[in-house]
Task: structure prediction
Amino acid sequence: MLLENAFLPCGLLTEDSIQSAQRLNIVAMIKRVLLTDQKGIHVNNKEIIRQLYESFASGDVPAVVAAFDNNISWIEADGFPLAGTYIGPQAVVENVFMRLGDFSDNWGVVVDRLIADGDTVVADGKYTWNHKETGAACEARMAHVWTLADGKATNFLQHVDTVAVREQIK
Result:
């Protein structure tokens, strides 16, 4: 407070600017509390998505779905076997997660890097799976664009080499 008062006479800081800064700090503190994981560690959007992929890889679907907003919009690319738009966690589980086995075995997502900018996180990597009949190893490049709000995934947009996927699942 002494430092703040020292700048008041110079006109560098006003009572209004100090109050605004204090309100912004309170908002930032609230967001940090709201975006804190169970271990008390502050979690940013990139970390939320990283944890989501780790949960998916370990088969922890409830943890994956816990990262979703109740009205998540999930878009699977045109030309992909599961193409479509699904709204809500249950629709994603039923129309995507539970159907991956229809055309593949051992479906996996390998994320090479995560790129974050504000509310958007992009996962760059590849899908891996085994051919349903022959067991042959398959893979295709992908990118996922995630949008988050208040620590929850609100939108998912899939980009994938659909030609490579379709050729490999024949």
